[in-house]
């Protein structure tokens, strides 16, 4: 996968996190739990597969909040 694809995925993850934080009171705990569950401390260092799984989970939460 190209580096620009990974960057686009990171941008999408950050966007989902921003949306969740603005619509959910317990966002900090929820997001921290999901990041820990996927073993992510740094989005830039995570594998593309981990980022895809992370985005899928965050986007599902975002979709539920819409």
UniProtKB/TrEMBL annotation:
Domain of life of the source: Bacteria
Protein name: Uncharacterized protein
């Amino acid at each position: 996968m190209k580096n620009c694809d990974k960057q686009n995925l990171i941008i999408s993850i950050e966007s989902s996190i921003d949306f969740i934080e603005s619509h959910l009171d317990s966002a900090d705990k929820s997001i921290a739990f999901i990041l820990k569950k996927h073993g992510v401390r740094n989005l830039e260092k995570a594998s593309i597969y981990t980022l895809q799984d992370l985005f899928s989970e965050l986007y599902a939460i975002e979709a539920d909040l819409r």
